[in-house]
Amino acid sequence: MTAAMLPNLHVILPELILAVGVLGLILLGAFQGERSAPLVGGATLVLLVAAGIAVAMQPGERTVAFNGAFVVDNFSRFMKILALVGAVGALILASDDFKRRRLTAFEYPVLVTLSTLGMLVMISANDLISLYIGLELQSLAIYVICAFDRDNTRSTEAGLKYFVLGALSSGMLLYGASLIYGFSGTVSFSGIATAIQGQQSTGIIFGLVFLSAGLAFKISAVPFHMWTPDVYEGAPTPVTAFLATAPKAAAMAMTIRVFVGAFPGITPQWQQIVVFIAIASMVLGSFAAIGQRNIKRLMAYSSIGHMGYALVGLAAGTAQGVNGVLIYMAIYVAMTLGTFACLLSMRRSGVLIEEVGDLAGLSRHHPVLAFLFSMLMFSLAGIPPLAGFFAKFYVFAAAIQAGLATLAVIGVVASVIGAFYYLRIVKLIYFDEPTEAYEPMPGTVKFILALSSIVTLLFFVVPAPLVGAAGAAARSLFPAG
After folding, report:
1. Rounded to two decimals, what is the model's pTM?
2. What mean pLDDT comes out for the span 164-168?
3. Where exactly are the transmembrane stretches of this chain (predicted)?
């Protein structure tokens, strides 16, 4: 490390906390073996919280470090905190389930921390090289945790599928990045924006298409969603909860920064790409989930649809649109953590239920759980006055203001169709004949479910903190506005 880089270290303090901490935890686990698993798990939560505090304490003004490769601004602060919240929530949800299934090992929290470190780098990446480094650090750890239940064929299959398809998407992203570098002469986002200002090079457009393919894979958007249902179903449920929250937030942040930061001069070109991906994701997410019987596969298609709704805001290409995306992702993370908390509390004879039909009559035996689960389903469907309604309202309003009324109408229609499978679950819970009762809910799951339910149910009462923070984050990407 050169002396010139030392003044930049305060900019990457959250990343340093995770990097140094995880090295220490690896050594602790190596020396003490499996006995260290509870200690490593607790220390990991402390590390993630400490990184979150460091992120919150960073200055709001835009700061660029390491020769422009790394940027800290209100946008990065907002999305880093969201990714850290998702990681902490998923780790807490995993503690009881892994203990019951005898999967407790010090490697799991270490891998989650390494993946989260990659996410923080992705969110602050300000050139193509740092973007790829963060992306691969995040992905390599996730490949392993998807296959963490080594004695389960479905889990190992999920890890292998994600690895093979992830390698393909990384290759496409790298090819796109090489085209963009070749035709712009720089890897810096600001340099690319300057180089393509006022011109529309065919090479840049082709590079952008391949780059978009890699980004779409990471947020599981159509047509690069093929890994999502199988990986969601095969991976252990706490791993699925992690996949559905923190990595999605980080990948969406990376996508926004790439399009808005590197290609503002060709907004109409990338808008066409985003509009196509958004429509395809919303439509497929709405229709494909209807026939699903496995609830984790259903949540996979639900996730695909929700990424499509979020992209409606990005398609607007405005600060208001990005503001809508940030609000959407924050509410989506809260709803998803609550939904998986419900799923992790539904256990019979020590085995988690995974079939939608097993929810029949839940209200007879567990009325509170039934109410909260139904509320989360209503929110995912976008029923007012729950938080999910306002998430869709912000992105659709931004699209209409940007002249994309047709896109907003398609989103509303897809949302109405998608409400069918959410309401079907509510019907099963309240109107079908009850099945056998579930085991008592673990305390850690109750904690996550309570926090998620508060956000989902009471967002409309106090929306200002989230809306204000998202607005400041979005404006930091549009300094001229």
Report:
1. 0.93
2. 89
3. 12-31, 38-57, 77-94, 106-123, 129-148, 160-183, 203-227, 239-260, 272-291, 298-319, 325-346, 367-387, 393-423, 444-462
Given the DSSP bridges, would you call strands 347-348 and 70-72 parallel, antiparallel or unpaired? unpaired
- Spatial CB neighbours of 22, under 8 Å, sequence gap ≥ 6: 47, 110, 113, 114, 117
CA distances from 71 to 57, 64, 121, 257 (A): 15, 4, 9, 11
Helix H or strand E encompassing 335: helix 319-343
Strands 63-65 and 70-72: antiparallel
Using an 8 Å Cβ cutoff, are 120 and 83 in contact? yes
What pLDDT, on the 0 to 100 scale, is given for residue 480?
A: 60
Query: What six digits make up the tokens of 30?
Result: 């190596």
d(CA 142, CA 160): 11
Instruction: List phi, psi (to 5°) of 280.
Output: -60, -40
Q: Quick one: how far is CA 77 from the chain centroid?
A: 15
Report the alpha-carbon distance of residue 154 to residue 235 in Å, rounded: 7
Radius of gyration, CA atoms only, the chain: 21
User: What would the two tokens of residue 31 be?
Assistant: 């020396």
**How large is the angle between the packed helices 107-124 and 37-57, nearest 10 degrees?**
20
pLDDT surpassing 70 at residue 182? yes
Rounded distance between C-alpha atoms, residue 101 and residue 352, angstroms: 10
What pLDDT score does 481 carry? 47
SS3 65: strand
Q: What is the pLDDT of residues 410-444, one digit of tens each?
A: 999 999 999 998 999 999 988 888 777 777 888 88
d(CA 432, CA 382): 24
Asked if residue 11 has pLDDT above 90, the reply is no
Alpha-carbon dihedral 243, 21, 137, 451, rounded to 10 degrees: 20
What tokens were used for 95?
Answer: 């503690």
CB neighbourhood size of 10 (10 A) = 14
DSSP per position, 264-306: GGGHHHHHHHHHHHHHHHHHHHHHHTTT--BHHHHHHHHHHHH
Evaluate the omega torsion of the peptide bond into residue 385 and state whether it is cis, within 30 degrees of 0. Answer: yes
Q: How far is CA 259 from the centre of its chain?
A: 18
**In angstroms, rounded to a whole number, what is the distance separating the alpha carbons of residues 277 and 121?**
25
pLDDT score at 7 = 61
pLDDT at 3 over 70: no
Largest CA distance in the chain: 70
C-alpha 307/C-alpha 78 separation (Å) is: 18
Contact 375, 338 (CB under 8 A): no
